[in-house]
Amino acid sequence: MIKNDELMSMVDELPIDMKTQLVEKLLSSIHPHQKKIDDLWADEAEKRVKEIQNGVTKTIPGETVFNEIRDRFSK
């Protein structure tokens, strides 16, 4: 049986693409994908992109959003 320290050393030596695959595998084992929910999020994202493209929704630059948050919570 592999000890924790040995496993961590092995992981440290992996190339980045294998580490990424390992992270995805570990995360999915902890929180399995729920296809229905994933599909709903994909549909929502597509809807929002269309709203932006059609001018129905306007975007706000990230810098503006973060400045407003800082202003609101720095009081």
What features would you highlight for this structure?
75% helix; 75 residues; mainly alpha
In short:
This protein is mainly α and 75 residues long.
In total, how many beta strands?
A: 0
Gap from first CA to last CA: 55 Å
| Succession of helices and strands | HHHH
Q: Quote the average pLDDT.
A: 93
Low-confidence stretches at least 5 residues in length (pLDDT < 50)? none
Continuous helix count? 4
Descriptive report:
The chain is mainly α and 75 residues long. It has 2 domains: 1-32; 35-73, no CATH class. 75% of the residues lie in helices and 0% in strands. The radius of gyration is 21 Å and the shape is extended.
Give the helix/strand layout.
Elements: H1 4-13, H2 16-30, H3 35-53, H4 62-73
